[in-house]
Amino acid sequence: MNELYERLRNAEDDAEAKGVATLIERRLDRSGSATVDLLTDRARQAMTAQDFALAAELMDRATAIEPAWSEGWNRRATVFWLLTDRESAIADLQRALVLEPRHFEAWAALGRIYLSMDDKARAMNAYRRAIAIYPRMPKLKDAMERLSPEVDGRDL
After folding, report:
1. How many CA atoms does the CB half-sphere of 116 hold within 13 Å?
2. Is residue 151 over pLDDT 90?
3. pTM value?
């Protein structure tokens, strides 16, 4: 994984960066447990059907079985976000980031949640963490440019 993150950070164009990011995401998707993979797949189906309560229950079980799987916490955070439970989503993203500090999607999601709470400084900090890992992350630079004058001030 270290080599993939290095390649991501040094990618020379957007297509290369996206390809490397996809490889990283595929590796992060591996829970190491057939049971957890099944629960996660069922949670994904429940989310598609907009049964977010069932998705949360399934992801609760997945994270209980594989508590060291960062992507499980990231996915459960997504369910909490859809349930408009920001505090639980933030807690799960923080847990994911303890397990995998280079989880650029978790950093970006954390930034979006903080921004939705009008906590622009924390949002910018999370975005900066994501962009340090994945400098060519789509849409993130634009979000940061819009937010920067309010957080960092304007040049005179």
Report:
1. 14
2. no
3. 0.90
